[in-house]
């Protein structure tokens, strides 16, 4: 394969390049909810006169692929965990782009409503039936349909191909994309990495009796073998939760969940806990210990209330505290070695599923030497998850790079727990796109100010007056 062509989309007609993107697009790896939410917000903002970058998604498969059967994360019939009203525009507060009484703010909100979950159902003629059915959670397949609809309507430009490399070239990002027949370069003013990354896993999967997440969902689609009567699931987060539910309820198998904590904790979903997901006001002012505790209680290694209430219907699920340190064949079964403190135990099962989730640092494998050096310099040392998580600024990017690298999946600790998931896609889009508009940009120093609880307000001329409150305080 050769480096045969270069794609650099032309600047958006009719806008002046006074911006920080100079007409170049914002590149997003993955055409999932984050790319679609950004495309919707970008199209709405451009329609009302803001010079924000166009969104170009690089996607190896198809729009919303990870929400469909056969792609490794779901069978498509699983139900969405969050409310569908937490859609692409949520929480619909547009005051990043103008004062609340400013007509432009109202116009943005109105245009955004045209891309809501409800608008999608109305457009498909399904709204009344959904209400009459008491507003059920959509399946992942139905959610994917919504995302595809919004991507089309917003004109999201998707380049099909796998991103193989990402390098800094001057003040831009240059991605090497492989579409199966050709390799070509795509350039952009900024880069946003979406998706959970490939399932990292703690066990080597053999595709037969020890499966990773993708192997499990492949088996689920193809049909479970009768011999897999007892199953060990490793991990206790949402990825594991959906797998346990499918096994115990959908397939009527006996499941033992192995997780390092005392039991299978429920996600904290009170209105007080949920508020930080929709609106991270005050988040940056909390101590790091409190923020980490919050994430542990409400997001990491917990099953959603919905999964828990489904599992209450069956006696098929038990759990063992500990960490799985290895597996070996044992008379047609698998012996799973579990360590808990000083103790080591063996647990036999017909099948083992490693559901410990994705690797959030997967993108570092794409970085070229210049990007890697720049990231190390920006972080002040080796590229570690901890350093990145602590550094993320209000635009959900690592500060100090020549071109922005937005990492919303690593933004929970510094900026708010809703940014890695679907909890506030509208706010995520505002934070990212504001970076490219000088008058609403919150610079890196603002992070420190936000941490100390102060507010930074930048004002501008037409259209309307715009401000970004870096603590998030003006966004309600
Ligand atoms: C099964 C499951 C259910 C979830 N349910 C919820 C929920 O109900 N509520 C919630 O808030 N969160 C949920 N999450 C967590 C999170 O919100 C999702 O992971 C969500 O999909 C993230 O959206 P995204 O846009 O970041 O990426 P994704 O929707 O994961 O999209 C990433 C895309 O990137 C593509 N891709 C990956 N690597 C490359 C590459 N190198 N080149 C090109 N393309 C690439 C993939 O094909 C994929 O289409 C769930 C996660 C999973 C796995």
From TrEMBL:
Domain of life: Bacteria
Species the sequence originates in: Streptomyces triculaminicus
Keyword terms of this UniProt record: FAD, Flavoprotein, Monooxygenase, NADP, Oxidoreductase
Entry-linked InterPro entries: FAD/NAD-bd_sf, Lys/Orn_oxygenase
Catalyzed reactions per annotation: L-lysine + NADPH + O2 = N(6)-hydroxy-L-lysine + NADP(+) + H2O
Enzyme class, UniProt record, top EC level: oxidoreductase
Protein's recorded name: L-lysine N6-monooxygenase MbtG
Molecular function GO terms recorded: L-lysine 6-monooxygenase (NADPH) activity
UniProt KW NADP keyword: yes
Family: Belongs to the lysine N(6)-hydroxylase/L-ornithine N(5)-oxygenase family.
